[in-house]
Description:
Helices cover 65% and strands 0% of the residues. The protein has helices at residues 13-28, 33-40, 44-52, 59-68, 73-77, 86-96, 100-124. Helix 1 crosses helix 3 and helix 2 (33-40) crosses helix 3 (44-52).
Amino acid sequence: MSKTANLKPDIDPRQKEIGLRIRDRREYLRLSQQQVANRLNIKRETYSHYETGYSSVSAVILERIAKVLRCSISYLYGTEAEIFEEEDYEVQAAFINLAPEIREGIRAMIMASQKRIEREETTHAPKAE
């Protein structure tokens, strides 16, 4: 066995940064690597390599990861910052992990409330002179 057999390959700093953002987002959503790998239809080990930066993430896979993690590709690349407060993340994570039919019911209630607020604002708005 050669001495170089035990050395880890050089990991590109950009790959590592993307991997850390993927991991942070996954952990924020309280998903395991196995859960994400299953949704991507890949092996957990392959997914783990994306998080560590050991393997490069292709554009196609990054797009699929972004969909599973409910964020933009730009966020994973680090070119777009999340704009929510910590409490918003907690609500978002809880919402995402609900059953689809429950999410749809909540979404419908929110939209109905928003329409009611808009109607009230229009009704009570001061008239222009």
